[in-house]
Amino acid sequence: MIHMHITAWSLGIILFFVTYSMYKSGKQAKAMHMVVRLLYILIIATGLLIYKDVHWMPMLYGMKMLGGIWVIAAMEMVLVKTSKQKATGAFWAQFVIVLLVVLYLGLRLPLGFSPFA
Ligand code: HEM
């Protein structure tokens, strides 16, 4: 399941950038945006499925999950604001900062790779 989670968020982030550049260059990006939204659901679902089997480090797992949802919220806000040609700076800042925190927490927690443990 951890590999499904890693696949889901890597693909989600890549397609997020693809969708962003499509909106930016004035292309029709609605369908791609829907694919990214489907990946949000997969990221959350795989995250929750991993979580249901762990019973340790509740504080760090709690922060990891809230952070993960925050990253997704920031991605969605960047895409929606870009599609409406509105300012996205505040959401890009949240995306970058919280993504770094979430990557750190994910790689610090015991499952999968743990270089920061
Ligand atoms: C874009 C958003 C997200 C990113 C970039 C992300 C990233 C990561 C990374 C890097 C790991 C560690 C993988 C490894 O150790 O090999 C991980 C694990 C995990 N993620 Fe996420 N995640 C995101 C969203 C979520 C969400 C929304 C949830 C929960 C609803 C969640 C729950 C978990 C759990 C429970 C683990 C296992 C932690 C461990 O013990 O290593 N993640 N995630």
TrEMBL record:
Positions of transmembrane segments: 6-23, 35-52, 58-79, 91-111
A Pfam family of this chain: DUF1516
Protein location: Cell membrane
Keywords for this protein: Cell membrane, Membrane, Transmembrane, Transmembrane helix
Mode of membrane association: Multi-pass membrane protein
HAMAP family xref list: UPF0344
Record family assignment: Belongs to the UPF0344 family.
Protein name, entry field: UPF0344 protein WAX78_18820
Species this chain originates from: Bacillus yunxiaonensis
